[in-house]
Amino acid sequence: MNQPNETFIEYVLNCEEIITAAEDKDIFEVIFNKVAGDQVDTRVKVNVYEEIDKIVQESKEAEESEPPKLETEIRILTSTEL
Asked: How many CA atoms lie within 13 A of 56 on its CB side?
């Protein structure tokens, strides 16, 4: 199977592999299911994903050099109805 060589991408091209939207969604689903379980309503997953995206966009717009931390996780949980 043709897979990109991560070492070549990182050290020769000096860049990172781009994750597609589908891959991003799959990764989110796996992590979410491990944390919250498989029985969580789909609407809750959508709300959590949207809140995370909102926080990431706000961070980018504010040109923050540090990624969001624990305070962000608390904000996500308190803004999402479980």
From this structure: 6
